[in-house]
Amino acid sequence: MSLRQPSALGAVMSVGAFFIVWEGLVWLFELPAYTLPAPSLVLQTLAQHSESLLMSWWTTLKITLGALTLAALGGVVIAAAFSLSVVLERALFPIAVMLQVTPIVAIAPLILIYLDSTTAALLLCAWIVAFFPILSNTMTGLRTIDPHLSDLFRLYQASGWQRLQLLRLPSALPYFFAGLKISAGLSLIGAVTAEMVAGAAGRETGLASRILEASFRTETPKMFAALVLLVLTGVMLHLIFVQLSRWAFRRWPVVSEQEI
Amino acid sequence: MLLQFEQVNRTFPEQRAALDHVSFSLHTNEFLTIVGPSGCGKSTLLKLASGLDQPTSGRITRDGALGASGSVAFVFQDATLMPWASVFDNIWLPLRLAGVSRAQSVARIHSLLDVVGLADVAMLRPAQLSGGMRMRVSIARAMVTRPRLLLMDEPFGSLDDFTRKRLGQDLLRWWRQEKMSVMLVTHQLSEAVLLGQRVIAMGARPGRIIEVIKVPEPASRDQEFMSSPFFLQTVNRLGDVIEADSRQGSVR
Q1: Contact yes or no for B166/B139 (Cβ under 8 A)
Q2: CATH number at residue B222
Q3: A155 at the B interface (CB within 8 A)?
Q4: How many Cβ pairs closer than 8 A exist between chain A and B?
Q5: B49 is a domain residue
Q6: How far apart are alpha carbons B67 and B211 in whole angstroms?
Q7: Going by fewer Cβ within 10 Å, which terminus of chain A is more open, N or C?
Q8: How far is A19 from A38, CA to CA, in rounded Å?
Q9: Per the domain annotation, does B179 fall within a domain?
Q10: For residue A214, which of A49, A24, A65 has the smallest C-alpha distance?
Q11: Tens of pLDDT along B77-128?
Q12: Average model confidence (pLDDT) for chain A?
C-alpha cells in the first residue's frame, strides 16, 4: 500500500517542487503572462476573481455531484434489474455500451437541443459519462458471489429477492465503491465538457464558461485559475471516495486494496 | 431411516465417475463419518444428500421430514460467513430466509451463542474472529433451524490440531443435545473413528464405498477411547484398506 500510495508528505513535496520549478522557469526566461503565467500570478488572479470563480465552481460542483448521485442510483438500479432478468440485460446492455463509447462532446449538442433546461442537459451529459463504471462494476459484483454461500441460499430455499437483497447486493458493495471512485472523476469531466459545449455566458454558469470567457480575451492567468479549482475539485472527490470506501470496508478485509 | 442411497451414480462431463454405485443408509440421530482420499467423491456425496445436486442414475430416498426448509444444514470446510454481517446476523440468516423476524429469533440465537461459546462476540464481524471461532459461528448457523440432518464437509480441515480436537468434542456434545443426524466428511482416519458411530471408507477414481465399520457402543469418545486397542486397530485397518485400494487404482 505504501508503495502504491505515496505518503501525504511526499505528495506535498513533489507538487511543491513542481510549482517552484515552474515559477523559476517563468522568471528565468521572462515568459509573458499570456503564454505561461507563474503560479504566484495564478494565485493572485484566483484571489482577485474569487467571487465569480467560486460562484462558477459551485455551479459546476452542483452539476458534478448531482450527476454522480444519479449515476450511483441509476447504475445500481439498472445493474440490479439486469441481474434479475437476463432478457432485460441482453436487450439494454448494448445501449449502455453505445452510450459509453460515444464521445460526450459529440452527443452534448443534441442533448442541448432536445432539453429546454440547460441544467437538465448538463446533468444528463455528465450522467452518461459517469454511470457506466458504476453499472459495469456493480454488475460484476452481483455476479461474483461465494459459491458456497450461494449453495447455502439455495439450500434454505431463498427467493430471488432475498438472494439479491441479502447476498448479491452486499457482495457487490466493494465493486460498487470501486465504480463510484472512477465515476466521481468522470462526472466532473462530463460536467465540464457539457458546459464547454453549452458555452453559455453569465453569472449562473460553471467553470467551463469562465475558461472560455478568459480564452476569448487571452486572460491566460484566469484560465489557469479556473483550472486550479477544477484540479482541486477532482482530487478532493477522489480522496473523499477513497476514505469512504476504506471506512465502509474497515471490518471486512476480504477485499484487497487493489479491488477497491 | 432418514436417508437412503441405492446404487447412486454421479458422473460429470469429461470425467470418470465421481460416484459409482453407492448404496448406504443413514439412520435417525446417527453420526456417520465418511473418510477417503481426495477425489473419492466425498463432497459430491454430501451435495447429493443435501439435495443441492441430483444423481445421474440410482435412487435417493429421503424421509418426509427432510422436505422442509431448514431441515437440512450444511457446514463447509471454510466457515462461509457473510463478511459484511455480524456473528449474530450470520446465525440469523437461515431463520431470516424462512421469514422469521429478528425479534422472534433472538432467544434461539442467544441460547446457541451460549452453546457454542460465542456470547461475547455476537456483534463482531467474521474478520475479527479466529478460524476456530468462525467455524463455531458456521456450526451455530447450521443448528439454528434445529435441522434433522447436518452435513459437514471437512469442517475442521483448515484448523490447527488443538482447535480441531476441541471442536470435535464440542460437536459430539451438540449432536447429543440437538438430536440430529450428522454426516461428516474428513480425510483424517482418527477423526472419522473418533466421531462416527459408523465409518464409511471410500476409494477414488471412481468414487465408491470400499468398507463400512461400525463402532461398538458405548464408546467414550475421549483420550481413553483413542488409546484403546479397538480404536488403534480400526484406524490402522482403514488406512490399509484405503492404501491398498489406491494402489490398485494406480494399476487400473
Answers
A1: no
A2: 3.40.50.300
A3: yes
A4: 50
A5: yes
A6: 30
A7: N
A8: 9
A9: yes
A10: A49
A11: 889 999 999 999 999 999 999 999 999 999 999 999 998 889 999 999 998 8
A12: 88
Domain count, chain B: 1
What SS3 class is residue A174? helix
Q: B97 and A253: CB-CB below 8 Å?
A: no
CA distance A216 to A49: 17
Written as nine digits, the cell of B108 is: 434461539
Residue A253's SS3 state is coil
Q: Pick A252's closest partner by Cβ from B51, B73, B127.
A: B127
- Could you tell me if B134 and B87 are in contact, meaning their C-beta atoms sit under 8 angstroms apart? no
Q: Which of A50, A165, A20 is nearest to B97 (CA)?
A: A165
Partners of residue A149 in chain B, C-beta under 8 Å: 80, 82
B93 touches chain A (CB under 8 A): yes
Residue B216 lies inside a defined structural domain of this protein:
yes
Q: In this complex, is the C-beta atom of B155 within 8 Å of any C-beta atom belonging to chain A?
A: no
pLDDT at A60: 94
pLDDT at B34: 94
- Residue B80 within a domain: no
Q: Quick one: how far is CA A128 from the chain centroid?
A: 11
Residues of B in contact with A174 (CB under 8 A): none
Q: Which of B44, B53, B84 to mutate to test the interface with A (most CBs of A within 10 A)?
A: B84
**ipTM of the shown complex:** 0.90
Q: Smallest Cβ distance to A156: which of B69, B76, B126?
A: B69
pLDDT digits (tens, 9 = 90+) for A141-161: 988 889 999 999 999 999 988
Is 70 exceeded by the pLDDT of residue B164? Answer: yes
- What pLDDT digit, counting tens, does each position of A161-175 carry? 899 899 998 999 889
Grid coordinates given for A150? 450461494
Among A30-44, A246-260, B44-58, B174-188, the range scoring the smallest mean pLDDT is: A246-260
How far apart, in whole angstroms, are the C-alpha atoms of residue B97 and residue A154?
A: 10
Domain that holds residue B220: 3-71+147-251
Domains for chain A: give ranges and CATH numbers: 51-248 (1.10.3720.10)
Which of A144, A149, A150, A152 has the most B C-beta neighbours within 10 Å, making it the best mutation to test the interface with B? Answer: A152
B53 close to A (CB below 8 A): no
Kindly report the nearest CA distance between residue A4 and chain B, in angstroms: 24
A49 Cβ contact list (under 8 Å, min separation 6): A222, A225
Q: What is the pTM of this model?
A: 0.80
